[in-house]
Amino acid sequence: MDHHGGRPRAERARQLADVLRQQITDGAFADGTLPDERDLGRRFGASRNAVREALALLREEGLITRRRGVGTTVLLPKYGHGLDRLTGLAEELTGRGTVTNEVRVAAEVPALPAAIAARLEVPAGAGGVYVERLRWLDGLPLSLDTSYLTAGIGRAVLAGDLRGRDVFRLIEEAAGVPLGRAEVAVHAVNADPGTARLLGIEPGAAVFALERLTRLADGRPVDTESIRIRADRMTLRATLGRGGPRTT
Amino acid sequence: MDHHGGRPRAERARQLADVLRQQITDGAFADGTLPDERDLGRRFGASRNAVREALALLREEGLITRRRGVGTTVLLPKYGHGLDRLTGLAEELTGRGTVTNEVRVAAEVPALPAAIAARLEVPAGAGGVYVERLRWLDGLPLSLDTSYLTAGIGRAVLAGDLRGRDVFRLIEEAAGVPLGRAEVAVHAVNADPGTARLLGIEPGAAVFALERLTRLADGRPVDTESIRIRADRMTLRATLGRGGPRTT
């Protein structure tokens, strides 16, 4: 990147890290091994030190590991999760990995918290169902999913196979119709110690925090979720069109 | 949350923090002040200690501040950025905040890095344009945007008002047609020290890292970006439908 020769090395390293991250998540290094420092430097017209600093950034992010004699390898494949249609995790990753669920809580709630009742558009004090699952992908923790469900559908979900299946499918079976749409808000936060322990990451590591409100086909809310996702294992993807009205 | 009475306080605190975060980002506390601890405890059926721990989590995230005698207030409004259609930042925030841009680099690049040339689908060794802008919203840093553009359009963008306008609009004016679509990948990472300094946050704070490849209406790539966004100031939002084929 000779056009940035006059810039601080840290900035050139960041730029190089950006390009490498994009290549890694696109699967450009098919066998999971990155070229050596000299080769990367040549490819990017960057100094050996800038290359080293870029690789240090990616190692900090948990994306790569560097071992003497072995070189630089991609630590974990990053799975893409589409943000352009509503899918459950297992459904989304069909054929790409095996999802299992550790059911931590699955219980009826006599009275939903007021904010949750409002979000689900049920009367204050209404009962519901709470489900908390730690989700594993190929034997490593991927996400911690917590759901509050409306009472009727929720009870049917409790009777379903929460260990083996996506909640969305269980809802659809209970409702007898496909889900409608969901509103999703994506945050990035530093993992609190409790969440970090469950997800097998360092406290403070960046994680996605998703809030998702899912509606039945007739528009009634049925499921409000908070989801923590390991950001070193998952990328959220979308394809955006320029024209047309917003879908909300 | 009496249905979780038997669970560790840290877990009840996390749950409470999830609900509060959702309310805060939805603007539920119109004057920016949260109810006091006692009131929150009553609302959620949670102990005073669990409430305190939940508020501590949200303070760690940079979402709220707590001051003796003043109480708990929302630190910064979190802006929503839609992930369901392709918009520039200023365009997206029209009427909600004032975007200004600090142009850090805006220059022709004699030869694009090989990975960038491949992504832009131009021949190896082709020239292009590099633009780096620190974007401010209402007087505080919001994001660091870096773009590689193809040569022809890029030169026209260099001649445009990069301080005052979205690059998308400048591209469209140069091309004479609206943009087509963009592929976006969203990561969450811990800010490296250099990025943290530019964005005015602590090193290690969780930030969004977006990669976006934007195409002209005829499908040709024109702009490949890496964007770091302060996650304490922005939430990414989408509405997802259940049915229909993926749009890619």
Automatic annotation (TrEMBL), chains A, B:
Pfam families assigned to the protein according to its UniProt record, in alphabetical order: GntR, UTRA
Family annotation (SMART domains): HTH_GNTR, UTRA
Ranges for the HTH gntR-type domain?
10-77
Q: Does the keyword Isomerase apply?
A: no
Cite the SUPFAM superfamilies for this sequence. Answer: Chorismate lyase-like, Winged helix' DNA-binding domain
Give UniProt keywords alphabetically: DNA-binding, Transcription, Transcription regulation
Claim: DNA-binding is one of the keywords in the record:
yes
- Listed CDD domains: WHTH_GntR
Protein name per its UniProtKB record: GntR family transcriptional regulator
